[in-house]
Amino acid sequence: MSVGKLAVCHIASGDLWAGAEAQIAALLRSLTAREVLNLSVILLNPGRLAREVQSLGIEVKVIPESQSGFWEIYSQAAKFLNNRGVRIIHSHRYKENVLAAMLARRCHIPFVVRTQHGLPEPVTGLGNLKQRGLQSLDRFVARRATDRVISVSSEMSRHLARQIGAEKIVVIPNGVDRSVVQSHLTVEEAKARLGMPRDCCVIGAVGRLEPIKRLDIFLNVAKLIAAEKPSARFVIAGEGREEAKLQALAQSLGLADTISFLGHRDDVYDVLRAMDILVLCSDHEGLPMVLLEALCIGVVVVARDVGGLPEVIQHSVTGIILKSGQPADLARACVQILDDEPARQRLAQAGVRLVAENYSAEMTGARVAQLYASLAGAQ
Fold it and tell me: Could you please report the per-residue DSSP string of 149-209?
């Protein structure tokens, strides 16, 4: 450990590359610029997040959960942390939250911080019982063994306050690293790369193909837009359990020739560049990274008024946000934007400015570093 530096260890799953993982990478990239911090990371899976963190020069301990049970992970993590002088352990999901609290006790780490990236997603059947048990344990750990909980939106902080107490919660919005979130393609080049006519309009969705994202709504929106804009093309980038179901729905809606399921994309910023509109139909969101990434790139966002989205989108100023989740209302808003090029350009430019002024990774990193300092200085 470097003398005089505050040692902080993050612990995360790293099994996917989605919004939470993108935010963790952006946060760590920002924190590495702060010479007062000595960072390390424990990940429970190899993958892109591990590669991103290693590229920053941060020491990473990968403990593959596919090969190790909970107690083996706990033991290996404890060995990694021993004699490092870590003063803050920062976790990012249920399993890691419990591990962090246990490791803090065993390794004499004074402070435990967690980031709540979103609210629990509904699960049906037997999985619901397991999830409820995990949530109860997670709340207990938050109340009894966690010093601060970072909420990425004010809306979500109100939910958390009812569960664990407002005194532990700090609101720190997500931020994007504008040096990373960019595309060097023109809009026309990006469309052509996806095999679409350069002059067509493209409406898209990006995210995990899971029920909470309500991509069934997006497909019904696409059907209504296609009826008015026959040349329109649609894309869904992401992977998940609902892929086959959504592809079948697209087929039944007559969208087979106009929609592309792109799967996981490492070039998601080039995919966003191809879009004229990004549509967010989720039943709930914390503060989705794809929202900030789209705005940063200059893509107009049409979204449902859920979670932390209205904290970012000012209706008809930095995007379009609707109380309604009805496909007809979302489709109407999209068509209006497509028919009004000056308005679309105005919204796009306002979104770029909004992210630069309020949602940069540098700002997020500064707030998190300040939180660390306030905890360490209070001891």
Answer: EEESSHHHHHHHHHHH-GGGEEE----B-TTTS---S-HHHHHHHTT--TTS-EEEEES--
